[in-house]
Amino acid sequence: MVVGMNVTGANRRNSPLISRQTYLSATPSVSALLLLCLGSGFLLPSNAAWSMLFYLTVLPLVLLRVARGWRPDWHNRTFDIMLLLTAWSGISVFWGDDISGHGNGDFYWLRDMLCTLSFICAFVMAVEEEKLTRERAILTLVFCGTLNAAISLFVCLLRGAAIHRLQGWGVTANPVLGAAIIGVCLILAIGQAVEDKSGRAAMLSCAFIMSVYLLLTFSRTPLLAIAVALGILGLGAGLRLWGGGLAVLACLCALVLIFGHAELRPMWQNFAARGSDCHLFIWQTAWDEFLRRPLLGFGPAARLPIQPVGFCPAYPSPHNLYLSLLFYSGIIGFALFFTVVFLLWRRLRQLPAGFGRRRWLALAVIPLIVGASDLSQIIKGPSPMWYIIWLPMLFALTVEA
Q1: Is 309 helix (H, G, I), strand (E, B) or coil?
Q2: Could you give phi then psi for residue 309, rounded to 5 degrees?
Q3: To the nearest 10°, the Cα dihedral for 324, 328, 329, 334?
């Protein structure tokens, strides 16, 4: 039973005229379609194809469930504020101000808000519909994420671009966002390997393939986030686990120094020579604009008024999760987001001490660290934001004590 969740609405479920089985059988399985969409994002060749699949499957089913009477448990404050945050981020388009004059239209962001709300509700519906949905979601993410990493590595080698920054496949096409998504899958794989000894070999094999992918993306902040997450997982681990991990790392370093010295220099230059990538200029611009409308923000349709300067191209978004919250939805949106983060953190702290709790804390820390130098609109979707921000939150929301 999911702690604190009653996602179909107490009045409807307790009605003597409508049983839970009758209600759930009245519409198709949300679980199956949600898992299909989660896996397809990794395998379909473009975000547009994945979006179309969501529009044709999960979105209409969620709307149908709502039309037939599904309601969340309004007594769950975390879920309520999560929905409020999403709604506020979308409807702020009505009082927003596109200071650049080149932003997307209002309908674009209202549609994305509806899709993101539907995705959140679909996950909660699926958890209520079937107890094993969470475990199946983990396996879907791990195996499809591994296949995505393998496809990306194969395409990279086929193009002879092994020393350049790895471009992912499908939803991981962006190196930074792709690294964050595969990082989420990596933490899930390691957690599953520890929790389920029968599938440990398969999970560790998946983790190895995804680790190679991550190293070749040269994405600094996601790698830092994953390192912190691995540190959280390792807290309390035995000396044998730490010793084995260090031994594997030492062997990899030795192999690189012996056989890959010629390739090491261009790889390191690719990693270190990018400097700040104009981040400081973008952040300063976003902060200055936020100070002009600190309470409500400029709305999701706004873009930063940045013109190309030197080697820095025009850039429409703050390139930072926290500045994006402030710029787009003001102090109110920023406060709502961190209220959700605090409530989820407090919920995870209530879990029994041990690896199970560290597993979800490690997962939750990835978007918070990656967001320090990347990420943007939290309501954009279907998009990588669903995998990076919303899935860790939803896992934390529905985890069993």
Answers
A1: strand
A2: -130, 115
A3: 10
255's CB contacts (< 8 A; 6+ apart) are: none
- The confidence score (pLDDT) of residue 8 equals 44
SS3 (DSSP) at 308: coil
- Token reading at 86: 């999403």
How far, in Å, CA of 26 to CA of 337, rounded?
35
Q: Is the pLDDT of residue 208 over 60?
A: yes
The rounded distance, in Å, linking the Cα atoms of 239 and 52 is: 48
Q: CA 130 to CA 128: how far, in whole Å?
A: 6
Residue 178 structure tokens: 């792709």
With both helix axes pointing from N to C terminus, report the angle between 47-56 and 106-129 in degrees, rounded to the nearest 10: 60
Least confident stretch, 324-328, 338-342, 397-401: 397-401
Per residue in 361-383, pLDDT tens?
Answer: 999 999 999 998 888 889 998 99
Asked if pLDDT for residue 11 goes beyond 90, the answer is no
Burial of 309 (0-12, 13-18, 19+ CB in 10 A): exposed
Tracing tokens 């102090």 back to the chain, one arrives at 331
Cβ atoms of 295 and 330 within 8 Å: the answer is yes
Residue 318 Cα to chain centre, angstroms: 18
- Closest alpha carbon to 366 in 383, 351, 384, 339: 384
pLDDT classification of 313: cutoffs 50, 70, 90: low
CA 238, CA 284: separation in Å to the nearest integer? 45
Report the 3 state secondary structure along 232-248.
Answer: HHHCCCCHHHHHHHHHH
Q: Of the candidates 274, 258, 261, 268, which has an alpha carbon nearest to the alpha carbon of residue 163?
A: 268
Alpha-carbon span 121 to 119, nearest angstrom? 5
Residue 295 pLDDT more than 80?
A: yes
Instruction: Identify the CA nearest to 29 among candidates 57, 2, 55, 8.
Output: 57
**Quick check: 245 pLDDT over 70?**
no
Identify whether the C-beta of residue 322 lies closer than 8 Å to the C-beta of residue 341. no
Q: Determine the Cα–Cα distance for residues 269 and 75; give it in Å rounded to an integer.
A: 53
Contact 88, 109 (CB under 8 A): no
DSSP tag of 44: S
C-alpha–C-alpha distance, residues 165 and 167, integer Å: 6
236, two tokens? 């309390």
- Check residues 358 and 96 and name the one with the higher pLDDT: 358
